[in-house]
């Protein structure tokens, strides 16, 4: 049985990846420092769970002792705004921490390391949808850190023959996303709507995003383990929706009459983003299966149950 190590495995996306791996009959090991991860996401799953921090140099020998066949490296500082406020912390987790994981992967001679990158590496797109060969010009320290790790992986392949798959995520959403720690707009809106409180929309709300459901992302990660070549692909729906449209869809799903509050734009935020997934479909034999309307309903219902309170009804 192939052994897969998932870094940050108690987190939002990661816990769904763990479930997908188990469904595919992998042996799963999780490392997490629980800075944002939630033990409840994985506590009932048949896995090996270890408390550890990727920013500590000791993680290298620890990973080597586990002898994984594959590594899915997800552990990260994921907030663009946090990276702007504290770029040194972002660098420590996303670059230094990733280098520790990469070093361990080389020493273990893993069959593949899958890395969670981001649309943030592109910066403000010149053309839409963004193709994988689009120029990279990050607008935030977060985007810089993700692009830097991509380059370390490419160099590690040249120098040490480390096989890699890089997945550039669009905006991932779904059940278990933390409205505070991981801060996705869908999670924040869901949290506020189920509390019957007004969410904040930054700017005019006409900025657009490409939302991809978390279970589709999980499937892409597992498929990326077995791609023969070293790849870099977008994981996206390739569909665009404005934040205003998103909020209206979520209001409808929650049967809510809450009104959003508008505030000034945030530094580092990108105006428009939609990622092409053509190569992803071909290389991974993958397709996003959950449309936005269905995914938002699932997410709203999750938050409603989490609150243990009924949603508003007309």
From TrEMBL:
Residue stretches making up the NAD-dependent epimerase/dehydratase domain: 4-226
Pfam family, any one: Epimerase
Entry-linked PANTHER family: BIFUNCTIONAL POLYMYXIN RESISTANCE PROTEIN ARNA (PTHR43245), UDP-D-APIOSE_UDP-D-XYLOSE SYNTHASE 2 (PTHR43245:SF13)
Protein name: UDP-glucose 4-epimerase
Source organism: Heyndrickxia camelliae
């Amino acid at each position: 049985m192939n052994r897969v190590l998932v870094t940050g495995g108690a987190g939002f996306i990661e816990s769904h990846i763990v479930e997908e791996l188990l469904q595919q009959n992998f042996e799963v090991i999780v490392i997490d420092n629980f800075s944002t991860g939630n033990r409840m996401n994985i506590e009932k799953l048949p896995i090996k769970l270890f408390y550890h921090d990727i920013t500590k140099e000791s993680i290298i020998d620890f990973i080597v002792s586990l002898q994984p066949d594959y590594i899915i490296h997800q552990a990260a500082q994921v907030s663009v705004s946090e990276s702007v406020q504290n770029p040194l912390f972002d660098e420590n987790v996303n670059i230094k921490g990733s280098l520790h994981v990469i070093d361990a992967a080389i020493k273990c001679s893993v069959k593949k390391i899958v890395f969670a990158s981001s649309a943030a590496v592109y910066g403000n797109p010149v053309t839409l949808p963004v193709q994988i060969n689009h120029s990279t010009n990050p607008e935030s320290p977060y985007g810089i850190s993700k692009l830097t790790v991509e380059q370390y992986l490419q160099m590690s392949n040249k120098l040490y023959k480390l096989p890699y798959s890089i997945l550039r995520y669009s905006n991932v959403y779904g059940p278990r996303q933390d409205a505070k720690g991981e801060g996705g707009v869908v999670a924040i809106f869901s949290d506020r709507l189920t509390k019957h409180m007004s969410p904040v929309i930054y700017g005019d709300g006409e900025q657009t995003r490409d939302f991809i459901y978390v279970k589709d992302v999980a499937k892409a990660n597992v498929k990326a383990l077995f791609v023969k070549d070293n790849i870099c692909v977008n994981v996206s729906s390739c569909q665009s929706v404005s934040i205003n449209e998103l909020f209206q869809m979520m209001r409808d799903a929650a049967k809510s009459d809450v009104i959003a509050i508008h505030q000034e734009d945030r530094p580092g935020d990108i105006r428009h983003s939609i990622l092409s997934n053509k190569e992803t479909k071909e290389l991974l034999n993958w397709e996003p299966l959950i449309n936005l309307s269905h995914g938002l309903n699932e997410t709203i219902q999750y938050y409603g149950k989490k609150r243990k309170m009924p949603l508003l009804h007309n």
